[in-house]
Amino acid sequence: MGARLAGGVRLLCNDGVIMEQKAIDKLHHLPNTTVSVPGSKSVTNRALLLAALADGKSILRGVQFSDDSRHFLASLAELGFQIEIEEALQRVTIWGEGGKIPKKRATIDVGSAGTAARFLTAMLAFSDGTYEITCSAQMEKRPMEDLFVALKCAGAKFIPEDATHLPVRVQGCSKPCHDLQMDIHRSTQFLSALLLTSPMLQDGLSVRITSEKKTGSYIAITREMLKDWGVMTTFDGDCYQVPKGSVLRAGAYDIEPDVSGACYFYALAAITGGKICVRGVKEGLMQGDMKFLEVLSQMGAAVRTAGEGIEVEGPSGGLHGISVQMNDFSDQALTLAAIAPFADAPVTISGIGHIRGQECDRLHAMEVNLASCGIRTSVTEDCITIYPGTPHGAIIQTFEDHRVAMAFSVMGCVVDGIVIENPMCCQKTFENFYEVLANI
């Protein structure tokens, strides 16, 4: 495994070599700093799709450049869209085709990007072309069936016909049925895919939700962004509707900073008693992970607007235990799990059964890695309780999941001997995460 480094987070590459230049020293002082995070992945990939479907030139500012967004951009380019990319300026310009796809035949690779997989599948299904969609081995395991079922009801064809996962061939339906139904308990991205591509349908869209879960924070982002681009949606508690003749309005669009990425640094402040501010994070952002700030506040941290963004200061007396339902901001379940052992009472996280079907089985990842660190847990199908304890060093299995890597790196800043296996999987959404962490 290589020579032991002194304290902190060690990063273990796939070839078994520890990345010494990327080792993060254990914190020996309270952090008091301001950091920057990339643009939001969720907002970036929605904006890329909306810009491609709008009629004319759109300039996207604050774009997140990561594995996920690069696969999205490359897919749009393969489909024939004219794109200008300026990474240094975090800017992308896209010339939309008014709901049309320039190439009628193409093969795209969505990698491990769930948003690209779901959103682009819907776009291709509502087209008049035939396309191949390929993906990573990780994405092959993630659910797609509920989206395929709805799109087949709309008139699209998939090969193989009984496909429940990618890869597939999609034959679009240029005049699809606009009255659909959908189960979204596995992923709200399925509904977002339909809503975002609804301007391609001349007769509008009606989607009746058949699952008990009918809404969520990411659906709220989708609807708010559609509104920003000139398309109104309605929801009566059972059915989402987009009116006939809806047209996306091209133009300039500013992408919010990634609150998901910000939360790792807020969690670090919470367990150290230090102060960390994240630039650009402010009240009123669309992202559901803003709710994580409320959780930290309930656990005893001070959350306030300061300087260039929102700042979190950890409590001097340590964190309190909490019981919290995290269905609407489940990306932060791992973050909370990684700091939960430092609380003065158990931490229970519920409503997160669906995260078993994300980049990995994230409930299993919590259980396994916390056990490796000497922390007791109890787990059900959609809930985990984490008991207070003193974590010790361990090799963290990331299961190639960026959120596992980043969450347990936070723990490693205060615990000696934490080794992150395959750490650069964080490039999926936060390419310079370890650089930002090291600077703290």
Low-confidence spans: pLDDT under 50, at least 5 residues?
1-7
So, CATH architecture of the largest domain? Alpha-beta prism
Order of strands, widest sheet: 2-15-17-16
Count of domain modules? 2
Going by helix content, strand content and strand pairing, the class is alpha/beta
Shape: globular
Task: Supply the CATH class of the largest domain.
Answer: Alpha Beta
Helical amount among residues, as a percent range? 25-40%
Largest sheet: 4 strands, mixed
Radius of gyration: 22 Å
Q: What do we call the CATH topology of the largest domain?
A: UDP-n-acetylglucosamine1-carboxyvinyl-transferase, Chain
Q: Provide the CATH superfamily of the largest domain.
A: Enolpyruvate transferase domain
Query: What's the number of helices?
Result: 13
Residue-averaged pLDDT, rounded? Answer: 93
The percent range for strand residues is: 15-25%
Give a description of the structure.
A four-stranded mixed β-sheet has the order 2-15-17-16. It is globular and about 60 Å long. It has 13 helices and 23 strands. A hairpin with a 2-residue loop joins β16 and β17 (309-313). It is α/β, with parallel strands linked by helices.
Name the descriptors:
440 residues, alpha/beta, UDP-n-acetylglucosamine1-carboxyvinyl-transferase, Chain, four-stranded mixed sheet, 13 helices, 23 strands, 30% helix, globular, disordered N terminus
